């Protein structure tokens, strides 16, 4: 079945450590996204990538970094510069530009990061 | 960024009743989407309505869109306990339709 796989599902980090969250999709989607969700809140966009080897900052990119070396993969690194990293992180993808449903998001199951 | 606002923030109804959630937004949009999220899980797309559409149906879901008021509503008819979840609207701005802007969500509890 096609979908998005995020790992790990739960992650604990000590202050000052960088951590990388994995996101892999087998939907052949062009665009991929990372969102952050805090308790009782909506989603805020961290980074997005519309094509391989290209990505743009979203609304809350500070303290995060990404890469898009392969179409299927869009890992997110939470760096020590992120002041409040404890949150639920969601990866998503869309088919890409143009056409009906081009911007309908398919989400992974999420990764919950807790800073100790 | 400009986020939509949803109301109510929380809604508790009895099984079999209808549930209505509202979403307001600020910018001109290409389309508006509704998503569902079960606790601790990813979001699932429910329905998309384009800016030139006024109403759309999918099973027990009915979505309306009023672009003059910049608002949308999601109606779930004959609710079931399994409908218990958070529901989010997401708007696709006209100038960047690939960058959805999410509301803060409505938490729906359907009591058996």
The string of secondary-structure elements of chain B, in order, is EEEEEEEEEEE
Distance between the termini of chain A: 36 Å
Count helical runs of chain A.
0
- Which descriptor suits the 3D outline of chain A? globular
Please give the count of helices of chain B: 0
Helix content of chain B: under 10%
Order of helices and strands of chain A: EEEEEEEEEEE
Mean pLDDT of chain B: 93
Beta-strand fraction estimate of chain A? over 45%
Unreliable stretches of chain A = none
- Sheet bearing the most strands of chain A, described? 7 strands, mixed
Radius of gyration of chain B: 13 Å
Describe this structure in words.
The complex is a heterodimer of chains A (116) and B (112). Chain A is an all-beta fold and 116 residues long. The model of chain A has no long low-confidence stretch (mean pLDDT 92). Chain A has strands spanning 4-7, 10-13, 19-25, 31-37, 43-51, 54-57, 64-66, 76-78, 87-94, 106-107, 111-115. In chain A, strand 5 and strand 6 form a beta hairpin. Helix content of chain A is 0%, strand content 48%. In chain A, the strands form two sheets. In chain A, strands 2, 4, 5, 6, 9, 10 and 11 form a seven-stranded mixed β-sheet that branches. The relative contact order of chain A is 0.32. The N and C termini of chain A lie far apart (36 Å). Chain B is mainly beta and 112 residues long. Chain B has strands spanning 5-7, 10-14, 19-24, 29-37, 43-50, 55-58, 61-66, 71-76, 85-93, 101-102, 106-111. In chain B, strands 2, 4, 5, 9, 10 and 11 form a six-stranded mixed β-sheet that branches. The model of chain B has no long low-confidence stretch (mean pLDDT 93).
């Amino acid at each position: 079945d096609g979908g998005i796989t995020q790992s790990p599902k739960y992650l604990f980090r000590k202050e000052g450590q960088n951590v990388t969250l994995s996101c892999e999709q087998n939907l052949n989607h062009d665009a991929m996204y990372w969102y952050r969700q805090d308790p009782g809140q909506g989603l805020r966009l961290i980074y997005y990538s519309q094509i391989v080897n290209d990505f743009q900052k979203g609304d809350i990119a500070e303290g995060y970094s990404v890469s898009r070396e392969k179409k299927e993969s869009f890992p997110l690194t939470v760096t020590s510069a992120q002041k409040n990293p404890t949150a639920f992180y969601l990866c998503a993808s869309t088919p890409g530009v143009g056409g009906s449903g081009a911007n309908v998001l398919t989400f992974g199951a999420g990764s919950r990061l807790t800073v100790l | 960024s400009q986020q939509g606002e949803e109301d109510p923030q929380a809604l508790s109804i009895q099984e079999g009743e209808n549930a209505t959630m509202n979403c307001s937004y600020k910018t001109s949009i290409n389309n508006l989407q509704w998503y569902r999220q079960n606790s601790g899980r990813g979001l699932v797309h429910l329905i998309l309505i384009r800016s030139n559409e006024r109403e759309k149906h999918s099973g027990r879901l009915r979505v309306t869109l009023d672009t003059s008021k910049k608002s949308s509503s999601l109606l779930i008819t004959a609710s079931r306990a399994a409908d218990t979840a958070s529901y989010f609207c997401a708007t696709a701005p006209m100038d960047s339709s690939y960058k959805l802007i999410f509301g803060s969500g409505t938490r729906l509890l359907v009591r058996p």
